[in-house]
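@channel sequence for tomorrow's demo:
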Amino acid sequence: MKRPALAAATAVLAAGALLTGCGSTRAPSDQAGAARPAASASVSPSASGSAGSTPEEAQRKFEEQQKQAAAEHDKAFPAVAAACAGKSTAMPSPTPAATASGGYQPENPKYSENHAYAQLAPLNPLQQCRGDAHAARVAAEAAKQAPAGPEQAEALLARLGYPGATVGQTAQGVQFSVFVPGVGPCLSGVLSATPRVEAHGRYLEGGCERPKGGH
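structure tokens (generated this afternoon):
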């Protein structure tokens, strides 16, 4: 009879030790959990805000960059700058979309959606003036001696101040597209004995070259 009582007493002592041990293992984690808010509170707001600038500062830097780019353009192309002096930078009002009551309606109602990849960014009067002046300048030089191939076209455009052009040979002549340095817009066309050059905004999917895509 003594052995069962002794075994019961031993079991009670073991359970007590187990409970005490569990309490001692939880205490450090609880303390660590209590310390976490203090650690996060130690991060200063100024440190987290120093990673970026305010929208006002970003806008100011952007405007300064635009002014600098325009000044560099006018210095490199004085004839274009003189021809376009005083032109407005205000964007034209968007053309009202055709409605069911009138206006052209494509047979496929999803035409605009399917051809969104080929949409161009609009140009303001100053950009259009610059683009037309640059286009006439390139066409006049190409008409004097049409480039025989892409390499000659790249050399001609670089000499005129338009580096980095995308060129390719076609049956009509050398096809090209290039962005007017600094201010734009894009120039695209064919350099041949009868050159065809036009100014336009960037394609909405990026770049001056017409994207290949759609569905």
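heads up for whoever presents: The radius of gyration is 35 Å.
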